[in-house]
Design goal:
With 246 residues, the protein is an alpha/beta fold. Helices cover 33% and strands 21% of the residues. The strands form two sheets. It has a six-stranded mixed sheet. Strands 4-5-6-10-7-8 form a six-stranded mixed sheet, with helices on one face. The chain is globular. It binds zinc ion. Zinc ion (ZN) is lined by residues 8, 10, 36, 61, 63, 149, 151. Residues 8, 10, 36, 61, 63, 149, 151 line the site of zinc ion (ZN).
Length: 246
């Protein structure tokens, strides 16, 4: 089975559409969505419409919970808060209900855990270092945890009781997920607001037969998204950061 792993779409419909076109060529069997379907971007309703059709499993991110007022957005930065308040008025009732139905942890099979942030704090914690990952490996038992939230593609490898290590992830690179007690925490990067300096949409492909994960980047017309954001008067920084991938 081939599974597309998608995270942090953040209402960027243009980026999502290009990623889904690319995924169409690969011919995947399933989609797992790691949260933050909404927040920041200009077309939340359109993105949820598309994602809920394809998602076999999905979890809620902090922005999704902010949109349905199940998480206090006081901790968001000013721009993020402004965008989510604006989006609350734009997302249709059916899609708000869909976001409300999402769990914060999901197990699409016995070997796999999906969260947005981390196993320890699924809606909030940023796994930005191998020591944070190491602590989290203690808190789940599945072989692979897919997570998002940082918008940075990465794979953390944990072999038994050894310290966890970050594996270098490059575009197009494929990581072979050895068995024999080795466990993984893997972030596919962000579709709608990459922060690793590469503005292209990022996602991953998990091939269960090959037991491997491939990291993929797709170009999209950033100016289309920025123009809609300008039209709707969304905060300028949210618009500009898309060009720089920060
Ligand atoms: Zn996010």
């Amino acid at each position: 089975m081939k599974v597309a792993i998608i995270s942090d779409v953040h209402a960027n419909y243009e980026a999502l559409t290009e990623a889904l076109n690319e995924i169409d060529n690969i011919d995947v069997d399933s989609f797992w969505i790691l949260g933050d379907l909404v927040g920041y971007g200009p077309l939340p309703d359109e993105c949820v419409d598309k994602l809920k059709k394809v998602a076999a499993s999905a979890v809620a991110g902090n922005h999704d919970l902010g949109a349905i007022q199940e998480l206090d957005i006081e901790n968001f930065n000013v721009d993020g808060r402004e965008a989510i308040v604006w989006q609350r008025r734009r997302i249709g009732q059916g899609n708000l209900n869909y976001l409300r139905s999402l769990p914060v942890r999901e197990r699409p099979d016995g070997d796999i855990l999906l969260v947005h942030g981390s196993p320890r704090q699924p809606s909030w914690e940023y796994v930005l270092t191998s020591w944070i990952a190491d602590e989290n490996f203690e808190l789940f038992k599945e072989r692979i945890c897919f997570f998002g939230h940082t918008h940075l593609p990465v794979a953390y490898r944990k072999d038994g009781n050894e310290d966890c290590t970050a594996v270098i992830v490059e575009e197009g690179s494929e990581i072979s997920l050895e068995e024999g007690g080795v466990r993984w925490m893997i972030n596919p990067g962000s579709i709608g607001q990459p922060r690793d300096g590469d503005p292209r949409a990022a996602f991953a492909l998990y091939d269960t037969e090959k037991n491997a994960v491939r990291f993929i980047r797709v170009e999209y017309d950033i100016e289309v998204t920025q123009e809609i954001m300008r039209k709707f008067g969304l905060p300028p920084f949210l618009r500009e950061r898309l060009s720089r991938g920060i």
